[in-house]
Design a protein that fits this description.
- The protein has 7 helices and 7 strands.
- The protein has 261 residues and is of the alpha/beta class.
- The protein has one domain (53-260): Vaccinia Virus protein VP39 (Rossmann fold), CATH 3.40.50.150.
- Strand 2, helix 3 and strand 3 form a beta-alpha-beta unit.
- The radius of gyration is 23 Å and the shape is globular.
- Residues 7-12 and 19-33 have low confidence and may be disordered.
């Protein structure tokens, strides 16, 4: 064995194993990053929803109250006094308890583990009937027929939609004439505020969207809802102070309301 071969062998023995180990670790993390992030996100969402729900009870009761007066356009459901609701962004199912009893619910959610989540929480859906469930990263409503649902519920979905106008257009498509779109969204602060600068920085650097499933802090999607030209629109701004969750300070301003097709 030549002196050069011996030198190469020594370098490989000294540095080869650490380099290979580091590269293998990077490849492993890269391969499983999406799974790890989804699981972490599920835990964060669950923690956030638990603390958030306590301070939103009154607002949500008022938001969902009109559902109890809806008469279904589906004659089979109408004869039974039931309605059909599409919920976009099911999250932890925190909205179900506000729905009329035995409502037929079609779930559209990004969570890849939504089926196992529902299986491990069977009591969650006791109040309703899950008619169908679609997992879609883009809030895809294509499988749902035109003019087929009495109400659409969307809470914190437009902040992460790639094409907000398309989502709103699809909501209008699947709603029956006179159907309700009930929304609750957080929005950006005024452009001249320091908080907006922080929101914008965290969004444009992709830090916040990467950690929180595409969420954009610098959006005010109420303008998109207005441009969607629903026949009627009723909304209000609210300020949410959740002292139990530090992240909530970055999205303290919300708008909540209903739109009619």
């Amino acid at each position: 064995m030549s002196a050069f071969d011996i030198t190469v062998l020594q370098y490989l023995m000294a540095y080869g194993l650490p380099v290979i180990s580091v590269v293998s670790l990077i490849l492993c993390i890269t391969k499983h990053f999406s799974t790890m992030r989804n699981k972490l996100l599920s835990r964060l969402v669950s923690s956030f929803d638990t603390s958030y729900e306590r301070i939103m009870v009154v607002h949500k009761k008022n938001l969902f109250l009109p559902l109890h007066d809806v008469v279904s356009s589906d004659w089979k459901l109408k004869n039974k006094g039931l309605i059909r609701i599409v919920e976009i962004g099911f999250r932890t199912g925190e909205n179900l308890k506000y729905y009329p009893k035995n409502s037929h619910v079609i779930v559209v959610d990004r969570n890849l583990y939504i089926h196992s989540y529902l299986d491990s929480n069977p009591g969650l859906t006791n109040n309703v009937s899950i008619e169908d469930l679609f997992v879609s990263s883009e809030w895809n409503l294509e499988p749902i027929a035109d003019n087929s649902v009495d109400a659409v519920v969307g809470t914190f979905i437009l902040c992460s939609a790639d094409r907000v106008n398309l989502v709103l257009s699809e909501i209008k498509r699947i709603l029956v004439p006179g159907g309700l779109y009930l929304f609750l969204e957080h929005c950006s602060e005024p452009l001249d505020t320091f908080l907006y600068k922080i929101q914008n920085f965290l969004t444009v650097t992709k830090l916040w969207p990467m950690l929180f499933d595409g969420c954009h802090l610098n959006r005010n999607t109420l303008q998109d809802i207005k441009f969607a030209k629903f026949s009627d629109l009723d909304y209000q701004y609210i300020t949410v102070n959740n002292g139990h969750n530090k992240f909530s300070k970055l999205m303290r301003t919300h708008f909540i309301g209903t739109a009619v097709k």
